[in-house]
Every structure is written in C-alpha cells, then in structure tokens.
C-alpha cells in the first residue's frame, strides 16, 4: 500500500460510517476510495443528478441547497458524510440536493457498490437511524401532524417531491379568496393567519416550525378564507395539489390518518375559542448610545417567573461562528434556526440590538414579534438610525413599545412635559412604559405589560 492510499484509508476510516470497519478492510478501502479537491464556489453535484457515490468531508465546509431556484438549507463541517441517503433508502438514486464548496475543500469518495462490499449488513442497516435523524426529522414532524406516523420509505418519497420557498418578513404566502395549489410545511420561521373583521385585518393564529398550512383548502378545492403572511424570514417546503392528491391515492393509510387529524381539529375548534398568541420574542433597541441594554434585560428577567433569555450578537457568534456576518442566505437561514432553537427552549426571548443599523440589527427587528425602544428619561432623543430605517420601509418591523427608565429611587412621573416629546416623534407607538431603575415592582409590572400578562 503506497503512502497516498494509506493516508486516504486512514482518513476515511476515522469517519462515520467507516469507523465501524475492521482493520482488515483497510486495503480494500484504500484501493476503492478517491480523493477530491474543490475550490471555493465549485459544485460537488446538483439536485436530481444521478447518485452513485458517497463522500466524507475531510477539510473545509460545504453548503447544501434544495429547490429551484436553489435555497440554502445548512452548512456541513469536516467529518460530515455527504450523499448517503439514496444508498440507504434505495429506490431511484438521484441527488436530493445540491452541494457547493465554501472555501477550499477536500473530500474522499467511495462508490455505492464498494460501500456495500465493505459494510456488513448489520453496519449497513445501522445507517437508517442516523439518516432519519439528520435528514428527515423536521419533515417527519410536519407530516405526522397530518398523517400520523409514516414509514421511512414514504418520508423519502415525499421529500424528493417537495419544492422549497423562502418568504421575507411581511411577505404574503397567499391571500384570502386565493385558490390554493400547495400544501406547505414550515421549516424555520413563523407565519400569521389573518382574517378581516370590521374592515380590519386581525391575527387569529400562528404557524410555526413543523406545522402545515393549506391542506384543507387543497382537499376541498375551495378558496382560502384567510390571508397567511410571514412574521419573520420563513423557509417552507411544499407539495403541489396534484402531488398531494396522488400521495393520498397511493397510500390509503396516510389518507385515513389525515381524515382523523381533520376530524380532531374540527372537534377542537368547536370547543375552544381562537387564542391569539402573545408576543414571545422582543427586540430591544436603545434610543441612546449609552443605554445599558444588558443591565436592563437582566433586571427585567429577574422579575419574571417564566423562562426568559437575553441574547446578543455575541451569543449568536458563539453558537454559529461561521455566520456572524449575516450577509448571505446561509447566514440568515442559520440565524432563523438559531432563534427557533432558543424559542423552543425558553418561554420568551429578548434580542439585544445595537442603535446602529447593521446585519444583526436587521435580522433581529425583522424576526421579533415586537420592537421595544429603551431610553433613559430626560430630553427626548431624535429617531435612531434603526427607527428611521423601519419607518422608511428599508427594514421590516416597527417600534410598538417605548420604555422610559428614570434614575433609581425616583417615582415614575407620568409628566406630559417629559412624555410628549417622545410621543410626538413616534406616532406609531402603541404602549408606553415608565420604570425606575432598580425598582423591582416597576420591572415586574413592566414584564406583564411587555408580554401582555
């Protein structure tokens, strides 16, 4: 065995699934594996290309895209296995996504026929669990809310037929009275369902990660009775109406599961009033450069009985160090995933925002349920750069609440001469709060006001 073959064998056997191979398989591994190098922005393969090999990423990073036009899905780090899904699940072997290099990358590839020769049946069967977990967990969650539990082969079949869509904050998925042609599942982000009452659009529900939207209208062939709009940057996967109907025809068990789900929803709807969700994610924006936003957030959290976390750009940088710039699709998608994880772990999230308009600020005010301006009382400040961008429509969102912080030990005055200069420049404000710094009662009351209860 020459040095190059030995090096390839050693590298490949360090990674899943080849770490389960006996040492004696090293020679066969070295004879079969090939080393591949990609420069920045080069494609490893494209969606729907024939699939005949899997790869291990030895160094560098790869971005995964799906859909047409391609939408970024995730970033792979060194050690990741790429392209194993068609091998494991069988059926027509085509790529389910496109892979592009981020910087220079080095990979080791192995043909599917060689993989089957190398791996024992027990090891090969063991690939099913990690594949399901890594590739299909969110899809399984969304589809199970419609159909109940589905076999892996059916999940993969559906995944291969789904299209991708991205909505910016404020963008409409469909309007009331539209004829719906897709069933959608939310991957990341959040949608709001709006109905018109007394000439006003009112939010009656929200749709979050793993939840479907549009299935009933597709089934009955009718028009939508509500408008659905993105509350923040949202990524969806969808099935066209013909594909959805064909799926039900091919799989009677799925159709029965769907019938049970819809019947259960009708019973629940008849028994429960519509509950409009309260704000859970607030973006805190300082009105002046010297506002102690972290100290304010800590004082507020101390008085709240529920689980609340305050997150700044440094938190995102620690959890997603490769996406701090937030200036491209992968970074924005990673921000959405990061925020969804924080919301799943806590009852509420406070996003700490700079008074400067940058990528972090734009991402936060766009994703937040509401934007709250934090100011030290005294002379009213002019509109910040962030406020001007929101008022001008350059950035989604808008300040809806203002908190004026008075010096410690002073009563909250409610003096119109203090309040009016702030309000005159900010006619869009819905709520105004006043607190004395260090006053626990004030901050307890503030928490109830900010989160409506």
From TrEMBL:
Pfam families recorded: cNMP_binding, NTE_Ploop
GO terms under cellular component: cytosol
SMART domains: cNMP
Alphabetical list of InterPro entries matching this protein: cNMP-bd_CS, cNMP-bd_dom, cNMP-bd_dom_sf, Env_Response_Regulators, NTE1_P-loop_dom, RmlC-like_jellyroll
Gene Ontology MF annotations: DNA-binding transcription factor activity; hydrolase activity
Ranges where the Cyclic nucleotide-binding domain occurs: 17-119, 146-250
Listed name of the protein: Neuropathy target esterase
